[in-house]
Amino acid sequence: MRKARCWGLLSLALWACGNGGGSGTPGDDAGGGPIDDASSPPPAGDARPPTGTVDAAGASAAAKLAIYLRGKPNFMIGMGNDLANNHDQDGAYTLGTTLDIHYAYLVGLPGQDGWPDWNAGGSFVNILTDSAAKHGTTPAFILYAMAAGGDGNLDVLVDDTYMKAYFSGAKLLFQRLAIFDKPAVVVIEPDFWGYAMQRSLDGKGAVHVTAHAPDCAGMTNDYRGLAGCLVKLARTFAPKTVIGFEASQWGGSQSAIITYFKTIGADQADFVSNNPLDRDAGCFEARTDPNCQRSANGLYWDETNTKSPNFREYLTWVKGVSDGVKLPVLWWQVPFGVPSDTPGGTAGNYRDNRVRYLFNHVDEFIAAGGAGAFFGTGAGNQTYITTDSGQFKNAVTKYFASPVVIP
User: CATH code for 71-400?
Assistant: First the structure.
């Protein structure tokens, strides 16, 4: 059995091997082999069909995205951050139900024990794409490499050594996905764009781009150029991969996020991503875990939607962003916690109600522009599929017996 090697490298939501996974060891059969020619073109074949060109007359952008990724217009359900030493035992593959999406974090930089170093030539990506294909699931990756210099540290953007390594890793990701040569998903640097818009709302803050990304010659050396370069690398080297930028509620107002996405060209991606909470709400309420020390106020939402904060308020915000940038939405890292009237909980058994609400109100997530939702832990000690008394397994089993079609 081939194994991928990964570690949780960073302090924020980077428990990268999942709730049940050991670190594994480098594989002796890493899919696709090393890439020798850094300038090699993408493979021949059909170009990535943007959501606007999928043959589904009258379907919404969200339905077209689902059709492209899964061949049918059903609201997609996925899972991730769940790696085991034996990838047949990754959490998503142990539920007895074939999920739509399986995701993993890509953290760190090449030459610094980052994801490109976990297996020869960055083939960690292909180990997971091949495993996903074997299990009938579409692979997804959360590119979280910019935070290798510290979460929210934007000084690295003008550090030539750092940015050279960063662009090398980003290009390698898309070259590796070109080897896979099938539809895949990449969420591009969640959290980072929230920090970036706080630093430079006009997108003109200095970033060293063109000196280290020759494929992006002529682009601006700022946040606009950075985002544009990442889009170009994806389109050039992995035309079958769909990409999206993260809309972080804490980054600014709804209107500011929409304007910023248009300014940097994030609206030229295929979707906008969002995660509704990076831990179980109860972990913040308990305040016993070092990973959950932010304020717990308003994190356990009202399911009756009569008190604030509640799910409909949140989904109204999401719909506004989706409509504003004219892109469908993919949710990821939705926590597994089990509902409870008692705040808090204990390690592995914190409360949350997002699983219950989403599966009971898929239509509301679709109405907000949603194409799918992927569940996963954002740190250690969170509620997981092995500690939730079967909640998630039962929910996905019932859902896939009669999935909800996106109009």
Answer: 3.20.20.80
Q: Are 62 and 328 within 8 A, CB to CB?
A: yes
Which tens digits make up the pLDDT trace of 50-67?
A: 544 455 667 999 999 999
Given a contact cutoff of 8 angstroms between Cβ atoms, the answer to whether 99 and 79 are in contact is yes
Half-sphere exposure of 174 (CA within 13 A, CB side): 29
- Which pLDDT value is given to residue 249? 95
Task: Locate 299 and state its tokens.
Answer: 């994190």
Instruction: Please give the Cα distance from 47 to 63 (Å, whole number).
Output: 19
Single pTM value for the model: 0.91
At 33, is the pLDDT very low, low, confident or very high (cuts 50, 70, 90)?
low
1 by Cβ neighbours in 10 Å (0-12 / 13-18 / 19+) ranks as exposed
In degrees, rounded to 5, the angle at the alpha carbon of residue 327 between the alpha carbons of residues 321 and 330 is 85
Measured between alpha carbons, how far is 230 from 171 in angstroms, rounded to an integer?
A: 8
